[in-house]
Amino acid sequence: MEEFLLCFVPLFVAVDAVGVLPMFIGLTDGIEPHKTNRIIYQSIMTATLVALAFIAIGTATLKLLGITMTDFMVAGGVLLFIISISDLLTTEKAQRKVDPELLGAVPLGVPLLAGPAVLTTSVLLVNEYGFLQTAAAITANIFIAGIMFRFAKFINHLLGNAGVRIVSKITSLLLAAIGVMIVRKGITSLISGDI
Questions:
Q1: Are 9 and 181 in contact (CB under 8 A)?
Q2: Is 18 in contact with 160 (CB distance < 8 Å)?
Q3: What are the tens digits of pLDDT across the range 170-183?
Q4: Greatest Cα pair distance in the chain
Q5: Residue closest to 46 by CA, chosen among 92, 6, 101
Q6: 20 and 112 in contact (C-beta within 8 Å)?
Q7: For the CA atoms of 132, 136, 137, 138, what is the dihedral angle to 10 degrees?
Q8: CA distance 143 to 135
Q9: Half-sphere exposure of 30 (CA within 13 A, CB side)
Q10: What DSSP designation does 68 have?
Q11: Distance between alpha carbon 52 and the CA centroid of its chain, in Å?
């Protein structure tokens, strides 16, 4: 249970479902409820399949390229830090017109739910806690995001636009701290020669 929680928390921060809510509301505004439900299902399935496929082949791909997990920890930690700083400094996540039929897959499933932060975090967690714990944590987090999408208007009304932004900024700050921690662990491994 402890290992699951150690996987769950960083992935919860990386998914940032609360931060994606305003975009979800904007993209699905005016779409009929039954179509919105289909979009939610499509986004959950796409994000889950992409994330699980990535962690299944991610480590093997790194080995094939001659990249050690220590290399990936440093690069991944820096990437997480940059993504989180970008989210902290921008007022809104990028929004653009998309085809309602593909909305659940792109951009909601990928890259908003299963984006670079989630994929990078997942590969790092697989190395530390194993495939099953990481896969369970990914699935649980994406499922929670789906529930939040289902009750998006209620949550947005409850927190208000300011509240949603505050929660999103706090999660981005946590992600930045996780990025720094991963870089620190990677550099420590490099120095100690534990590659």
A1: no
A2: no
A3: 988 988 998 899 89
A4: 57
A5: 101
A6: yes
A7: 100
A8: 12
A9: 3
A10: -
A11: 12
